[in-house]
Structure to design on (336 residues):
């Protein structure tokens, strides 16, 4: 056997593995898209259960199904971590104290954290569109730190809670700049 | 030491991320699961933190589920090898980049904040293909 033939066989063997990709429906029905690119080009998957199979010979789009996904990916899907759950606390204007009416929400978040296999919590602070960007970044972070400290005081491990601030980047209710909007002055507790 | 430098130091420590290298956390693990990290093998159980360049392996009876710090969910079926090539995520701007490679086996993905903020900032590779992710759920497998 020539050296070229040996090299060709090695190349073929290396390229022999096959890839299968299937787009799944979204939990909330949003439209999504996945682009699968290989040496033969791009294939866009944009419908639930749209799939593509690639092997050494061809790249072939196909229609997969819930049954096929269950058969081939049941174990991987069963191992999926629990989805995040969000709890929203509100804050008085310009302050970092939790509003009284948000205390019950804090209790609900604590119950959810306790029900999870691993404690893992993100605390994300937000402001309304009153004030400058840097000021709002600092205030959002302060609000998050306040809630983080409260969670730790209520028994959550300090290394399981991370705080961050999003400033006014992600208003719950879009408003023009300068509008005081109570629904935007908030902290989200993301239980993961 | 005077009070001012102490306060400054406390501030610096408080603003550092708690786990600079941490990019995610194992939430579910069953059967044989291990992580190759810098030449060593790390045992895996729920709560184990994952780091960039970790190689996650499952045995014939193994499955594992990981939540990344951008909220992406990755889970592996049996006989799988997943390389967490690189991961960067800014929790304030949600900008970031995430590359992972499924060398073999089966993987289920729910993309997170990185893919939502910047289309194509999250990529999943297989030996022959690249998947560009735009806020989506999908499954991928690699067979020998």
């Amino acid at each position: 056997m020539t050296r070229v033939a040996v090299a060709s066989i090695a190349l073929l063997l290396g390229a022999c593995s096959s890839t299968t990709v299937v787009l799944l429906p979204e939990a909330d029905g949003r439209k999504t898209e996945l682009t699968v690119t290989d040496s033969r080009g791009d294939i866009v998957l944009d419908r639930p259960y749209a799939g593509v199979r690639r092997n050494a010979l061809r790249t072939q789009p196909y229609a997969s199904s819930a049954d096929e996904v269950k058969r081939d990916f049941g174990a991987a899907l069963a191992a999926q971590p629990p989805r995040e759950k969000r709890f929203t606390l509100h804050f008085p204007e310009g302050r970092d104290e939790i509003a009284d009416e948000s205390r019950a929400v804090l209790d609900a978040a604590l119950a959810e954290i306790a029900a999870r296999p691993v404690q893992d919590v993100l605390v994300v602070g937000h402001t309304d569109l009153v004030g400058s960007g840097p000021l709002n970044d600092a205030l959002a972070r302060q609000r998050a730190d306040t809630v983080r400290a409260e969670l730790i005081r209520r028994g959550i491990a300090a290394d399981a809670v991370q705080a961050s601030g999003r400033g006014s980047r992600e208003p719950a209710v879009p408003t023009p700049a300068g509008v005081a909007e109570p629904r935007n002055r908030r902290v989200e507790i993301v239980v993961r | 030491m005077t009070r001012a430098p102490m306060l400054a130091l406390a501030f610096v420590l408080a603003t550092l991320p708690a786990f600079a290298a941490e990019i995610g956390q194992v939430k579910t693990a069953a059967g044989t699961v291990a992580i190759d990290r810098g030449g060593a093998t790390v045992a895996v159980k729920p709560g184990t933190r994952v780091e960039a360049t970790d190689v996650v392996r499952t045995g014939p009876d193994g499955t594992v589920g990981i939540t990344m710090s951008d909220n992406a969910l990755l889970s592996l079926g049996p006989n799988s090898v997943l390389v967490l090539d690189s991961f960067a995520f800014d929790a304030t701007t949600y900008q970031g980049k995430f590359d992972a490679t499924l060398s073999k086996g089966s993987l289920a993905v729910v993309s997170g904040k990185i893919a939502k903020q910047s289309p194509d900032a999250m990529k999943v590779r297989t030996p022959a293909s690249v998947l560009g992710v735009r806020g989506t759920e999908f499954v991928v497998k690699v067979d020998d």
User: Anything to note?
Assistant: The mean pLDDT of chain A is 89. Chain A has four helices and nine strands. Helices of chain A lie at 3-14, 66-78, 103-115, 133-153.
